[in-house]
């Protein structure tokens, strides 16, 4: 009975999507910067500027190397403003994320869109 309830709970979590989390690519650990570095960079963003879905908002990593940790949105068709980027990054730091992670836009459910910090092999030129 207990195992059935546990499995039911796990399937329910999958059905509703995961909330704020520190998950990311295994290569996150290989990049010499972290979420706090990205948070510092984000503090300089214009609150009203916006970025399109999937666009690399900011990135950090070694100079001259294309691989990086980047901030971008997923699971959304909406743009995001600088103010919301800052708030969602603050949430990842408060959650204890160090390298990578995702923070949902609303209801702690990534199905409604999320801000993600993750490893990218090639950062976009604008970030």
From TrEMBL:
<dbReference type="InterPro" id="IPR015131">
    <property type="entry name" value="Killer_tox_Kp4"/>
</dbReference>
<feature type="signal peptide">
    <location>
        <begin position="1"/>
        <end position="19"/>
    </location>
</feature>
<feature type="domain" description="Killer toxin Kp4">
    <location>
        <begin position="9"/>
        <end position="120"/>
    </location>
</feature>
<dbReference type="InterPro" id="IPR011329">
    <property type="entry name" value="Killer_tox_Kp4/SMK"/>
</dbReference>
<dbReference type="GO" id="GO:0005576">
    <property type="term" value="C:extracellular region"/>
</dbReference>
<keyword id="KW-0732">Signal</keyword>
<protein>
    <recommendedName>
        <fullName>Killer toxin Kp4 domain-containing protein</fullName>
    </recommendedName>
</protein>
<dbReference type="Pfam" id="PF09044">
    <property type="entry name" value="Kp4"/>
</dbReference>
């Amino acid at each position: 009975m207990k195992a059935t309830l546990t499995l039911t709970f796990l399937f329910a979590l999958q059905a509703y999507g995961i909330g704020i989390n520190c998950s990311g690519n295994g290569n996150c650990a290989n990049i010499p910067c972290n979420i706090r570095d990205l948070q510092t960079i984000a503090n300089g963003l214009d609150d009203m500027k916006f970025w399109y879905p999937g666009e690399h908002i900011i990135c950090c990593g070694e100079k001259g190397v294309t691989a990086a940790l980047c901030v971008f949105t997923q699971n959304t068709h909406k743009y995001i403003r600088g103010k919301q980027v800052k708030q969602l990054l603050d949430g990842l730091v408060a959650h204890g994320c160090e390298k990578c992670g995702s923070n949902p836009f609303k209801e702690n459910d990534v199905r409604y869109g999320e801000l993600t910090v993750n490893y990218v092999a090639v950062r976009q030129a604008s970030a």
